[in-house]
Amino acid sequence: MRVLLISLAIVIIDQISKLAVKGFSIPFLKIHYDGMYEGQRIRVLGNFFRITFIENPGMAFGFDPGLDFKLWISIFSILASIGLVAYIYHVRNQSRTLKIALAFILGGAIGNLIDRMFYGIFYGYSSMFYGRVVDFLDFDFFHFSFFGRTFDRWPIFNFADAAVTIGVIILIFFYKQKQKEESTGQTFEASESSAITGTLNNSVSGTEAQGKGGEDGEADKGKEISF
């Protein structure tokens, strides 16, 4: 289960980056860090890549299904995370690629779950399960429409979103490669089986021919040849 260290690393990176953007305060340790104000933009690579601080009350990439679904999303995330841990344990002896993909998805899911569960309490603006997810990675990738919304830039996201996406991509390539290998293996087995069958048929045919030849030879020996 060492692969879970990948999930832990993703959660740590995700949460440190979010706290660095949003800021935080720990009064009893006399620690206070302002961070960015909501809506603030910092250009990193011109307009192509910016750090833009926003918060969304919904799901990944800023998609908001509505406040009524907030609790259910959090509960589903908890159950999904538990299910992923159990499944990673179940496939612990299988392909490392599969386990790494699942670890990425698990780390990303937990990263955003922490925001929803605790940020409302930690920052004092909401109750448990109703926190807002911190997003800040802002790229000018594509212009597209999604669920009735038009985006001039790629939706702002965070490292947890990126980890889930990477995990899903790895899974897709993993299963495509697995299917290809299985297909190649079946073709090889079919060819090998055909070759073996052909060899056996040739052997049987040769044996029958020899048997017939032997019978004819014995018959010829019994005949007298006249001159």
Task: Please outline the helices and strands.
Layout: H1 4-22, E1 24-26, E2 31-33, E3 41-45, E4 49-56, H2 70-90, H3 96-122, E5 133-139, E6 144-146, E7 149-151, H4 159-221
Antiparallel strand pairs: 1-2, 3-4, 4-5, 6-7
Helix pairs in contact: 1-3, 2-3, 3-4
The biggest sheet, with number of strands, parallel, antiparallel or mixed sense and barrel status, is: 3 strands, antiparallel
Mean pLDDT: 82
Estimate the strand proportion. 5-15%
**Uncertain ranges:** 217-227
Fraction of residues in H or I helices = 55-70%
The structural domain count equals 1
Number of helices: 4
Keyword list:
7 strands, three-stranded antiparallel beta sheet, two-stranded antiparallel sheet, about 55% helix, alpha+beta, single chain, about 230 residues, globular
Describe the protein.
- By secondary structure, the protein is of the alpha+beta class.
- The protein has one domain (4-182).
- It is built from 4 helices and 7 strands, in the order H-E-E-E-E-H-H-E-E-E-H.
- The chain has helices at 4-22, 70-90, 96-122, 159-221; strands at 24-26, 31-33, 41-45, 49-56, 133-139, 144-146, 149-151.
- The strands form 3 sheets. A 3-stranded antiparallel sheet has the order 3-4-5. The chain has a two-stranded antiparallel sheet with strand order 1-2.
- Helix 2 runs antiparallel to helix 3 (96-122).
- The chain starts with a helix and ends in a 6-residue tail after the last helix.
- Residues 217-227 have low confidence and may be disordered.
